[in-house]
Every structure is written in C-alpha cells, then in structure tokens.
Amino acid sequence: MSDRDKRVAAYAAEGRVWTRLAGLLPSPEDVELVQDCWDIGEQEGGLWQLVEKLLAQGVRVDGCTRAEIAAMAVQWDVWDQHRHDIVALPDDPARPGPLRVYADMEPVEEGDRLLVPWIRCTRCDRILSRSHERTSWGMLHYPSGYLVTLRGEAPLEFDNEEPDAVWAALAAVSAPCRVPGDD
C-alpha cells in the first residue's frame, strides 16, 4: 500500500471513530454540529464542541471512549487545551472499561526524548506514553511517537510518521485486555 493510500485509509478509519464519538451526544442537532466539523475539516473546533457538550450534558463515557477522545485530541493537536476536560468527563459505572487517561503526568527522560505517561490499562498495567522532544525553551514538541510498555516485555514503539500511529498505539495498550462490553 502506498503512503498516500495509508493516509487515506487512516483518515477514513478516524472518520468512523469521529462519527461514533459524535453519536454520544443525545441531541441530533449536536451530533450534526460535531459531524459537520469533521466534514468541513474543522476537527479542532469539533473536538472542543464534543467535549464541552459531553461535559455540559453530563454524558457518561467509559474508559475506552475517553481514551479515544484523548487520542483524537492528540491527533489534532488540541490535547493541551482539552486534557483536563477530557479526563473530567463523567464515568459510566455500567461500562468502566480498562483504560484510564491521565492529564498531567510528569515526563520521564529517556535519552534525548521525554516520555509522558498518558493512558494506562488498569487490568494489566500496560502504559501508553507520548514521546516528545524538548524545545530549546523547555516546552514539549508535538509527539514524535508513542511507546507502550509492560514490565518484563519489550516496549512497542509507534512512529508518528505513520498515519495511524496514535490509533495503533491505543490498540496495543488496550486490545490484550479488552472484553466484550468494554467499548
């Protein structure tokens, strides 16, 4: 598959996730508003609308859904603006799911990169970290990739040059422990 075909396939797959996330909203008008943001290429504004409306309406989400919203926010470079609201989305006690999203974990230095623990599987303790390079002024660059670790196993690395890196990393942290009803 060519790079262009991979990007097109990844975008289409992400669009399906977006549509499912928009469908969490109880109002058809809100669903349409968020979906329209995807359709016109305003994902950043659409994520803001989605998260704000989920919070305002008290829509409960499971851990896997929260992790998908977090992945979408990182993908569209709005995680820093929305991370606290995403983590604050009300839990769905009927469907807790195995994933927990963290907004403010301290980076861990590893060579020339910083790893920021971000999502953890509560069943097996697998951790998904964002890999960043530090800017000269001390901030973190957009993630260069993702690392999934589990004590005693070789880490799995996902390079952000791949169009579906964040989604592949999310699957790697959650797939081994998911059971029916988690998503």
Describe the structure.
With 183 residues, the chain is of the alpha+beta class. It is built from 6 helices and 6 strands. Strands 1, 2, 3, 4, 5 and 6 form a 6-stranded antiparallel sheet that branches. A hairpin with a 6-residue loop joins strand 5 and strand 6 (156-159). The model has no long low-confidence stretch (mean pLDDT 91).
Task: List the defining traits of the structure above.
183 residues; six-stranded antiparallel β-sheet; 6 helices
**Count of helical segments?**
6
Proportion of strand residues: 15-25%
- Name the overall outline: globular
Runs in which pLDDT lies below 50 for 5 or more consecutive residues are none
Compressed to H and E, one letter per element, the order equals: HHHHHEEEEEEH
Q: What structural class do helix, strand and pairing data support?
A: alpha+beta
Radius of gyration: 16 Å
Main sheet: strands, sense, barrel = 6 strands, antiparallel
**Termini Cα gap:** 29 Å
Amount of helix:
40-55%
Instruction: Give the tally of β-strands.
Output: 6
- Give the overall average pLDDT: 91
Compact overview of the structure:
With 183 residues, the protein is an alpha+beta fold. The protein has helices at residues 3-22, 28-39, 43-56, 63-75, 79-88, 165-174, and strands at residues 99-101, 108-110, 113-121, 127-132, 145-149, 156-159. It starts with a helix and ends in a 9-residue tail after the last helix.
